[in-house]
Amino acid sequence: MDFPADVPTLTQGDVTLRAHDIDDVVAIVEQCTDPVSITWTTVPLGYTADQARGFVTEAVPRGWRDDSEWTFAIEATHPSGQRRFSGSLSLRSEGSRRAEIAFGAHPAVRGHGVMTTAVGLLLDWAFSTLDLETVVWLAARGNFGSRRVAWKSGFTFGGVLPKWLDHRDEYPDAWIGTLHRDDARTPTHLWYDVPVLTGQRVVLRPQRASDADRIVAGCNDATTAYWLSFLPAPYTEQDAATYVQQGAEAAAAGQYIQWAVADAETDRLLGVVGVPRMLRGSAEIGYWAHPDARRRGATTEAVALLVGHAFAPAGEGGLDLHRLFIKAAEGNVGSQQVAVRNGFVRTGTERRSERLGDGTWSDVALFDLVRDEWKA
What is the pTM of this model? Predict the structure, then answer.
């Protein structure tokens, strides 16, 4: 194809895909020197205007001429009210009517749906004009912004490719997803956002990498290790990092949700509460507390906040569940008291179903709460 003559202009609402031009250079430099772009893309460090000009006048036209990569500029209105360059996205030919999609947004338009609209326009063109069969998406593990765009666009996620991406001579894991021309182009599963839930003494918020030292201390505590014998021992900083990462990925995959329980004044992590299992409107609640947060009512309040969110209708941002249950080892009085104080009723016993830290097997007490009986 000839550049720019054969590059179509594609528009939906405020978003337009078009050929790059020399006037985009300043905004391209802004995007390529932005910390988020540096973290998640392979843009050269110290990106200059000369490199941007080379991208616009050499690299992009070459891809169109030899049908190796079809790259578009995104144009949209910035929050300032000015309409200007807002990112780039492309399809890289993989042969046999297959291509890899790649995209990056200018920082001014992130979070405004611009990239999702742009990807939709590109896919429409790819499946009709290029007659592609399948498009593949790859992103560095942890790049939830890119993953959310792919999720909204209907990609089916295939898991993790260990040590796959070439990222400035490092090889991070990659998420992978695919989209076939006949796919519905709508999300294939739920994505659980982790909202901030505020109480009087505690706040439930997403877990952060900075919580690692408190997670390590809490999980190496003798009492925690006794009741939660499945934890690694000793529990390391890497274990904590993996725990936080897996929790975020599970929410994005619609599997389960977990929150950090933080002090309302200091934001210091006091424990974790979550919904590790959900099935047909029923869900389990699990929790553990840092040793310096026990017997202060923090976990009781955290569970109360979670129960309210779990029973709230989906239209109000809740999980719209009708039944919750808690399981606690027979001798774990503190955990059972949290359940009772939140209105849960003991319904039975699982015999010898929980292995404790000393190697013995314990009965497990079962508690549940149904929405019709719950008092907020």
Answer: 0.92
